[in-house]
Structure to design on (156 residues):
């Protein structure tokens, strides 16, 4: 097999070189990355579903992702009055108890941490981080929060 590769080597180089020269002469950029449109991705997904390579629920998931672009951010938000939040002044043990990490069913994995009301957001904290800290962690939740990200409601 090695002898065949060595024998064909000059021909392969000649063909590769002539192809590259022709593409350069025609000003065709072979290094350009062409972006796929949403329609092309959808068509590829349809082919994958028809071939049995992609499951129908996976196809639907990707279609739902495309639909997110058309939605206003407010349609994804929880109304302010219904937001579960933790007070910055409570201990980690109290926070764990409030979120139900003591065995009760948890509603969320992350919580906003506020001083007194939702008008003064200090940051956010995850239940996993509170569990890692343990109920004997010193200080208050405010000592362990990470920065919260704020986005305008008008964003789509």
């Amino acid at each position: 097999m090695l002898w065949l590769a060595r024998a064909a080597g000059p021909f392969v180089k000649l063909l590769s070189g002539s192809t590259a020269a022709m593409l350069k002469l025609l000003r065709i950029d072979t290094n350009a990355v062409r972006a796929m449109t949403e329609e092309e991705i959808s068509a590829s997904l349809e082919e994958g579903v028809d071939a049995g390579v992609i499951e129908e629920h996976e196809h639907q998931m990707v279609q739902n992702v495309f639909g997110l672009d058309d939605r206003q951010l407010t349609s994804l938000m929880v109304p302010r009055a219904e937001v579960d939040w933790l007070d910055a002044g409570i201990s980690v043990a109290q926070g764990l108890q409030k979120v139900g990490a003591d065995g009760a069913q948890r509603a969320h994995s992350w919580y906003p941490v506020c001083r007194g009301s939702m008008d003064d957001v200090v940051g956010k904290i995850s239940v996993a981080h509170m569990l890692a800290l343990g109920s004997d962690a010193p200080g208050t939740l405010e000592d362990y929060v990470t920065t919260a990200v704020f986005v305008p409601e008008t964003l789509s």
Notes: Residues 2-25 form the longest helix (24 residues).
